């Protein structure tokens, strides 16, 4: 039951831009903000104790942004949530570049049954760097959609286009990884 609830909340969070868009057409900012606050509180309650501090922080910021939107009766504050998510992910990925192993290196090591070869560690560092660039650009575009002031464009980019771009980034990485692996298997 709890895993079903987690999945449901995750889908709702992913659909956040559409919830805001639809909510604005039928609810006041105060009621929409209250619904969003409740969604984020529920998410915070179902996050595991060992969940990443990043996801907890992002969730708390979602609560704060919706709360501020209620107080000031202005939707713009709630529109900043996708910007904050991208900036947070940028910071996490960027910070990991200065650690012993980058975030993607740690994920690859965790998923691999064998130790990663040196070229793979170096490759995953560059993948982490590529995600940093992606999140910086995504945060910039998300910010632009807020400044532009078109809720339709904000919803289109943050609720659809950005997810397509994430998918394309992941697909590109998989294809490049296969090419890199084949190259090093052939030349070592």
From TrEMBL:
<feature type="transmembrane region" description="Helical">
    <location>
        <begin position="160"/>
        <end position="180"/>
    </location>
</feature>
<protein>
    <submittedName>
        <fullName>Conserved hypothetical membrane protein</fullName>
    </submittedName>
</protein>
<keyword id="KW-0812">Transmembrane</keyword>
<feature type="transmembrane region" description="Helical">
    <location>
        <begin position="7"/>
        <end position="23"/>
    </location>
</feature>
<keyword id="KW-0472">Membrane</keyword>
<feature type="transmembrane region" description="Helical">
    <location>
        <begin position="78"/>
        <end position="98"/>
    </location>
</feature>
<keyword id="KW-1133">Transmembrane helix</keyword>
<feature type="transmembrane region" description="Helical">
    <location>
        <begin position="119"/>
        <end position="140"/>
    </location>
</feature>
<feature type="transmembrane region" description="Helical">
    <location>
        <begin position="53"/>
        <end position="72"/>
    </location>
</feature>
<feature type="transmembrane region" description="Helical">
    <location>
        <begin position="29"/>
        <end position="46"/>
    </location>
</feature>
């Amino acid at each position: 039951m709890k895993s079903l609830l987690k999945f449901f909340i995750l889908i709702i969070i992913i659909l956040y831009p559409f919830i805001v868009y639809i909510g604005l057409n039928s609810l006041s900012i105060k009621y929409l903000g209250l619904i969003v606050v409740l969604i984020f509180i529920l998410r915070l309650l179902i996050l595991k104790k060992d969940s990443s501090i990043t996801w907890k922080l992002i969730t708390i910021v979602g609560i704060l942004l919706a709360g501020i939107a209620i107080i000031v009766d202005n939707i713009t504050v709630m529109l900043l949530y996708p910007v904050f998510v991208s900036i947070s992910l940028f910071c996490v990925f960027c910070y990991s570049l200065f650690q012993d192993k980058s975030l993607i290196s740690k994920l690859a090591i965790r998923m691999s049954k064998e130790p990663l070869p040196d070229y793979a560690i170096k490759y995953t560092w560059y993948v982490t760097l590529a995600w940093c660039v992606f999140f910086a650009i995504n945060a910039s575009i998300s910010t632009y959609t807020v400044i532009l002031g078109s809720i339709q464009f904000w919803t289109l980019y943050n609720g659809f286009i950005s997810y397509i771009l994430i998918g394309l980034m992941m697909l590109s990485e998989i294809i490049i990884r296969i090419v890199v692996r084949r190259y090093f298997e052939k030349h070592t």
